[in-house]
Every structure is written in C-alpha cells, then in structure tokens.
Amino acid sequence: MSKRAVQAGAAADVLAPHLERLRTELEIPVDYPADALLEAEAAAALEFHAGPDSVRQDLRDLPFVTLDPVGSRDLDQAFFLRRVAAADAEPARFEVFYAIADVASFVEPGGALDAETHRRALTVYGPDGRFGLHPTVLSEGAASLLPDVDRPAVVWRMRLDASGELLDDIDVRRSVVRSRAQLDYASVQRQLDDGTADELLQLLAEVGQLRIDAQFTRGGATLEVPDQEIERSEDGTRYRLVLREPLASEEFNAQLSLLTGIAAARMHRLAGVGIWRTLDEARPEDVERLRRVATALGFDWTPSSSYAEFVRTIDTSRPEYAAFATEATRLFRGAGYAAFGTPEHPEVPRGASHSAIAAEYAHVTAPLRRLVDRYGTEIALAFCAGREVPSWVVDALGALPAEMAAGSQRANAYERGTVDLLEAVLLGPLVGEELDGIVVESSPTGEATERRAKATVLLRDPAVRARVVGDASALELGAPVVVRVESVDPDRRTVTLSVVSPGASELER
C-alpha cells in the first residue's frame, strides 16, 4: 500500500490553463459587458439607495451579524435573534430578524446589468475564483452586508412559538442595517462546543435545532453527506481534494434561510403571484430500494419507520454510511421552479412543494448569487405593503424556471469538471500505486452469469470518486476495496484505475 503523501496538492499554475479551457467549453461568463459594468459602478457610487419603496425603516440599532465560510465577501444574509418574554396571551417565544442584501435597489429593470444577470442566472464558483451574477463592485462591495458599514437591506421579521413553528404575523420591509461582525462557521462551532458562545449564538443553536426538529416532524429530512471539496492553500498556490463533514453551525444557519423561504412562499400564496422552489416526493419504489440498501449495509431500518425517521437514527460514524448517503441522494432529484400568477400559469400550482423541506418554499435569501431571489423578494415586499406586484416582476416570472435551470446546469457541470480535473492531476504522481477505498455505489452489469458489477469507489486520500467495472464479489456496496492507479489524462479530465482483486477489470469514469 502506498504511503506517499498527497497533502501538498496540485499546483495552481498547472491547473490554470485547464480551468480556462473548461470555462470556455461550458461558456461560463467571465467578463461583464461594458454597459452592464458601468451601470453597476454608477449604482455602487450612489450614497443611499431608497429602492423601489420611498421609505426605509432604520434598524441599525439591531446587532446583526453574518455567518459564512472564512473569507467570504459576497454576504447576502445577516441575522439577529431574540427571545420573547412568555405571557399568557402571547404565543411567540422567539423573534427572528433576517436581513437580505437589497439587490433590486442596485439593478435597474430592463437595463444592461439586468439583462446580464438573466444571462448568468447564478454565481459560478471554482477553485481559482468566483464568476459572479453581479460585478464585484456590488456583490463584494456596495450591496454586500459587510461589517461596520450601513447597508440597504430587505429585513424579514418572523416570530416562532415555543416549538419553533412559524407564526402568521410575518413582516418584510426595506430597511437600513449595520452588521456588527462577520462570523465564520468553524469559529462559531468551536464557541458552541466549548461553551463560550454568546447569547445570540446560543439562540441560533436553539432555534436552529427547533427548526430541524420541525422539518422532521413535517416529514422532511436532512442527511449529512460528506462534501467532496476543493481546498486552496493559504498562499493560493496549491489545491487539494478533501471530504468535509458539514458542521452543526452550518445547518443552524441554513435553517434560518429555510425559515425565510417558507415565510416567503406563504406570502406568494396569499398574493396569488409567486415562484417556488419545488422537489417532487420520492417514489415509493425508490424508498423501498433504499431500504434494501440500508439492510444490506447492516443498518436497522424498521418497516414501521419512514425515511425521515430512519435518517435521524443512523450512525454516521460507520464506514458504510458513505455508501448509504450516496444512494440516498437518488431519492431527491429533479428540483425545479414553479411560477404562478402569470397569464400562462394564473393559478397556484397544486402539490408544488419541496419534499425534502416538506413545505411550500421560495428562494429569497441569496440575491447576490441567485437571480430568482430578487423576484421572490419583490413579490413578498409588495404583498406586505399592500401594493400590486410590479409588472417587471410578473413579466419575468414565466422565463425564470428555464433560466435558472440553464444556469444551474452550467454551474454544476463546471463544479464537476473542476473536481474531475483535480482528481486527474492529484493522482498523476501516484500512477502504479495502490490506494484504499470503499464501494459507495454498485449495480449488476452485463449477463447475470458473468457476475460483473458497475460501481463507484470513494478514495479517502486524495478524496476521489471514480467508476469501476469488475468482479461483483469485490464490488459489493459498502465493501472496502484496494485500487491501483493505472493512468491519468488531465486534458480529458479522466482517471483509469484497476481493482486489486481476482478477475477485476479496469475502472472507468
């Protein structure tokens, strides 16, 4: 077994031309048209943005904070939480203030920048930088909720009862806020773990856990899947692949975003105009298949337990968990958007909920990075103010699902392509050596008598996922496996491995 260290990673200058070629292949927008950039710079230069509404509430006295990965500059969200004193006639126990970057105050409907954001739809992230929905003068400057500066924002005020359920008196208004601190997940997690977290962060954990519990009670499910991520060295000269477990602080923060999206969907329904994020229910046959997988891996999924109930009890420390989590991702596929209140789709769609969240849900909390959020936010603002939804919003709704689908496909292809490239470069020095892995996907292939299987193997160091075809007896789901690196091709972003077992054939990705 090879003991060669791969922690040093791949040189950034080696990957650079390959990444540039990949962006060209996928038509990832890099530079902004001159007229769009001029509009962004002019908007950023204005001293104050009143926005489409003439009055902003001043919430600079509330100590908002942001919570993001280390080094983030495109800060969409800031939060402040407080406990409501219990009273006999008062069902509320928590008050959540969620500030969202007010992007619509910087983008003129129908202008050049607006058109460019519709072409991009999403910010695309890669190892060598981000290719933003908006120019950095906005996304990392004037529109970002950076600390210690006044910023225009859309602030949601939501009240929760003692169990974390969202009450009906939701308020959303254009405001001006001032973030007190830019926090990061790892630091917050350390404070929560060692007992040094302040009252705000303790409330974040308390409310976050209540919302997680409420999601499971509704029939939704959250499965912590280790992420295959590209990690950049501090000096920016090298990259490596790692498997990273999500932190509890990330999930608590995500629950605030989900809460706001659920609140927004309520307003869209009441307004009769909206655009929701949707995800179909898992098919019964897929749930049954996953149940058989869990049993084969040695997990105790009782017949009376639903998927949501089972995943709350699963032991994530077991090595077989990676195989189960990989299989479980197949349950929830086909996410999309459903627009309504338009001439083409005037009615609220039936059954258009998000099955993993188990609620009607709208994207409104990441407008710096996601086009659709700007529109979902404007609908909620109009409804809360008793105004008609602006015509520029309604006119755009019909095309948004297709625009978002195209942007997501491009972003996902780039993310997968960058990982494939880094896998090939990292494994280059290891050609001829053997590495440990685990089979995380496996299915029969060819004639039954051939006892062949097609599988995906997950290596731990470097964190590579790769396809293999070989002897079924060596490729059972959850089984440990040893593979040999046969060849790599960075230009094609491919790796060829072989399984070190009798009768195994070459691995194909």
The biggest beta sheet, please? 6 strands, antiparallel
> What portion of residues is helical?
25-40%
Mean pLDDT: 90
Helix/sheet category: alpha+beta
What is the β-strand count? 20
Rg, rounded, reads 24 Å
Number of domains: 3
Q: Could you say which overall geometry the principal axes of the C-alpha atoms support?
A: globular
* DSSP strand content: 15-25%
Widest beta sheet: strand line-up = 17-16-15-18-19-20
Q: What separation lies between the terminal Cα atoms? A: 23 Å
- Total count of helical runs of at least 4 residues: 13
Low-pLDDT sequence parts: 1-7, 502-506
Provide structural commentary.
- There is one protein chain.
- This protein is an alpha+beta fold and 509 residues long.
- It has three domains: 118 residues, no CATH class; 315 residues, no CATH class; 41 residues, no CATH class.
- Helix content is 34%, strand content 24%.
- The chain has 13 helices and 20 strands.
- The protein has a six-stranded antiparallel beta sheet. The protein has a five-stranded mixed beta sheet with strand order 2-9-8-5-4. The protein has a three-stranded antiparallel beta sheet with strand order 1-12-11.
- A hairpin with a 4-residue loop joins β18 and β19.
- α1 packs antiparallel against α13, α2 runs parallel beside α4 and α6 packs across α7.
- The longest helix has 28 residues.
- The N terminus is likely disordered.
Write the layout of secondary structure elements.
Elements: E1 10-11, H1 12-26, H2 34-45, E2 57-58, E3 65-68, E4 77-83, E5 94-101, H3 112-120, E6 124-126, E7 129-131, H4 136-142, E8 150-160, E9 171-178, E10 181-184, H5 185-194, H6 199-218, E11 227-232, E12 238-244, H7 248-271, E13 274-278, H8 284-296, H9 307-311, H10 321-328, E14 336-340, H11 371-385, H12 391-397, H13 400-427, E15 434-445, E16 452-459, E17 465-471, E18 480-489, E19 494-499, E20 506-507
Parallel strand pairs: 2-9, 3-10
Antiparallel strand pairs: 1-12, 4-5, 5-8, 6-7, 8-9, 11-12, 13-14, 15-16, 15-18, 16-17, 18-19, 19-20
